[in-house]
Amino acid sequence: MRSAVLAAALILAALPGVAVAQAPSPAPPAPVASAPPAVAPRVLPRVRLVATGGTISNRRGGRLTADDLVASVPALADHATVQAEQFANTGSSQLTLEQWLGIARRVNALFRDEPDLTGIVVTCGTDTLEELAYFLHLTVHDRRPVVVTGSMRNPSQVGYEGQANLLAAVRVAADPAAAGRGVLVVLNDEINGARDVTKTDALRLHTFESRGFGSLGVVDGDRVVFRRMAEGRHTAASEFDVTTVAALPRVDVFLVYQGAPGDLLKAAVDAGARGLVLATAGAGAISGTQNEGITYAREKGIPVVATTRAGSGRIASMREPVTSTVPAPPRLAAGDLSPVKARILLMLALTRTSDPADLQRMLNEY
Ligand code: GLU
Asked: pLDDT class for 331, splitting at 50, 70, 90?
């Protein structure tokens, strides 16, 4: 019977235009167990969060911890494996210089001990964020990115932007293209270099800007975009090593204003300042009796460094007085560094030298 059906099927198949249903084929052999297709699991970059506090953590009823911050942004897991640690949880202006030294040492230790770490994010209050960022720019000895972020609104306010800033900062820290650019400041989806960035508005969200220079890049939905490199020595090329520095030398900053008294400069020298920074008017002008204070400092071998209070623009060293009635500005000059950043550079420079020519070289290079 079976062979008769088969024969009929063969005959039908031979006739043109006649479609024949295939005879059921024998059960296929059991599949041989084989290895899954060779698609490597996606390995996410590793990013460390070092939290120091600031408005980004300043929740009413209890500050957010480093772990709280990470847990509040589930989208971080799309970009990096983030491990968090709490260094401090306070306002930026309450961090001590000893804590700054500790943060720099911690960041250096993390990079040294964890070669597979892609980058580090440091959260910080925005008030003095640019100072910590520049300090790390000069004292971290690694090409891998260190990204400093924070927020202008706190977690209890409508429109809190801390989560967006943390996500953007982690994306930059996880991006290999961020390496070698020094310490970066990321807020409001913009990337600024630590040397040039400054807080330009006390309240607005768009506050961090590099006046006169512009940002280095942006953090967009699809990718991180870099558009330029900032000049100046930093990080892996820096000569400043705080591994064994117990305390930074005292350096004070003085504002030049109409009729300013020079005795404040003398008082700072007598109180132990090892260097003075002047936020001069325009391109180096001083006022009142400040020249007496400068002379007093110089006689005691205390370097006096000129910056400008104008907010941007460069102060040249060894500038001659404009007219004979205008006293010569301080001999050392910090170019276009802001007064507070010139103070940081001078503190670090004084850990290595007190030679004026060498100090000026450092002021030129960083
Ligand atoms: N705005 C403050 C700062 O820059 C933060 C205030 C706080 O964290 O309590 O650090």
From this structure: confident
pLDDT digits (tens, 9 = 90+) for 232-288: 999 999 999 999 999 999 999 999 999 999 999 999 999 999 999 999 999 999 999
What contacts 3, CB < 8 A, 6 or more positions away? Answer: none
**Which residue, judged by its Cα, is nearest atom 9 of ligand 1?**
91
- Return the DSSP state at 315: B
Q: Quote the pLDDT of residue 2.
A: 44
Q: Is 128 a catalytic residue?
A: no
Confidence of residue 9 (pLDDT cuts 50, 70, 90): very low
pLDDT at 6: 40
Assigned token pair, 27: 């059960």
What share of the chain has pLDDT > 70, as a percent? Answer: 86
The pLDDT score that the predictor gives to residue 61 is: 97
Q: Considering the candidates 52, 55, 139, 307, report the single residue annotated as catalytic.
A: 55
Quick one: fold of 46-237? Rossmann fold (3.40.50)
pLDDT at 229: 95
Phi-psi category of residue 191: left, alpha or beta, with phi > 0 → left and psi -120 to 50 → alpha: beta
Pocket test for ligand 1, best of 52, 68, 93, 165 (most atoms within 8 A of CB): 93
Report helix, strand or coil for 66: helix
- Do 46-237 and 251-365 agree at the fold level? yes
CA of 99 to the centre of ligand 1 (A): 16
pLDDT at residue 69 greater than cutoff 50? yes
Please check whether residue 87 is in contact with residue 49, taking contact to mean a CB–CB distance below 8 angstroms.
Answer: no
Give CA–CA dist 320/333, Å, rounded: 13
Backbone angles phi and psi of 51, in degrees to 5: -95, 135
pTM of the entire structure?
A: 0.88
Please report, for the chain, the start and end positions of each structural domain, with discontinuous segments joined by +: 46-237, 251-365
CATH 3.80.10.10 fits 251-365, yes or no: no
Three-state SS across 239-306?
A: CCCCCCCCCCCCEEEEECCCCCCCHHHHHHHHCCCCEEEEEEECCCECCCCHHHHHHHHHHCCCCEEE
Tell me which DSSP letter residue 50 carries.
E
| Pocket of ligand 1 from Cβ distances under 6 Å | 53-55, 58, 91-93, 125-127
